[in-house]
Amino acid sequence: MSKSDLSQPNISEQLCNCLEPCSKVVVGRGNPSAHLMLVGEAPGAKEELLGKPFVGRSGKVLDNLLEVVGIDHQKDIYICNVMKSRPPNNRRPTRAEIAKHLPWLVHQIKLVKPFVIVLAGATALETFLEIKTKITVLRGTWQNWRGIAVMPIFHPSYLLRNPSNAKGSPLELTRSDLFEVRKRMETYQIL
User: Fold this and answer.
1) Cβ(181)–Cβ(116) below 8 Å
2) Tens digits of per-residue pLDDT, 36-45?
3) Does the CA dihedral 191-52-104-143 come out positive or negative?
4) Which residues form the Uracil-DNA glycosylase-like domain (predicted)?
5) CB count, 10 Å around CB of 53?
6) Which of 51, 4, 59 is nearest to 26 (CA)?
7) Residue 137: how many CB atoms within 10 A of its CB?
8) Domain that holds residue 166
9) What's the pLDDT at 3?
């Protein structure tokens, strides 16, 4: 399989049968050849409408943060979600829904072959590390998932609700976490 298989319709038909009725499938955006990947929770209304993850208000926050730390959101990173379709009423996905979408996410990771994965928010953190803990406990710390370095960060939607730039604020901490991600990528001589 090639990286173009990331959006194959037959995969979406097989794996997106957990929500009735199934909303539009949102696969990913960015560079599928990048060695840096970011995984969020699930598409929102704007993402569902446009068919790309992180293109609404949260996406603008994410893109701005990436730009500030020197990561190009089009060429240096591949961005996707745990869930490939929007949960009803934009609620948090259930464990059963995540389990049904997980094979697709694992398939994406195998195709992209990232050296580093950024976990945006608690759902991504819990899905990868299989622990239920607050994002505030693990954000900004390097973790390991199947031999891949992972960095949990606050979800950009959380930053929208906490927009302060003060020292120690979620926004400032996330910026710092993404600088650490950039440094790690530089050690791999990727960025």
Assistant:
1) yes
2) 999 999 999 9
3) positive
4) 27-179
5) 29
6) 51
7) 11
8) 3-187
9) 55
Q: Mind listing the pLDDT tens digit for each residue in 63-120?
A: 999 999 999 999 999 999 999 999 988 899 999 999 999 999 999 999 999 999 999 9
Full 3-state SS string of the chain: CCHHHHHCHHHHHHHCCCCCCCCCCCCEEECCCCCEEEEECCCCHHHHHHCCCCCCHHHHHHHHHHHHHCCCCCCCCEEEECCCCCCHHHCCCCHHHHHHHHHHHHHHHHHHCCCEEEEECHHHHHHHHCCCCCHHHHCCCCEEECCEEEEEECCHHHHHHCCCCCCCCHHHHHHHHHHHHHHHHHHCCCC
Note the pLDDT of residue 18: 47
Give the chain's domain count: 1
Structure-block tokens of residue 66? 């990436």
Token digits for 81?
């979600």
**Residue with token string 């409408």:** 49
Total residues belonging to the chain: 191
Q: In CATH, what number is assigned to the domain containing residue 133?
A: 3.40.470.10
Smallest CA-to-CA distance from 44 within 79, 101, 87, 6 is with 87
Q: Which of 153, 103, 146 is nearest to 124 (CA)?
A: 153
User: Rounded to an integer, what distance in angstroms lies between the CA atom of residue 186 and that of residue 173?
Assistant: 20
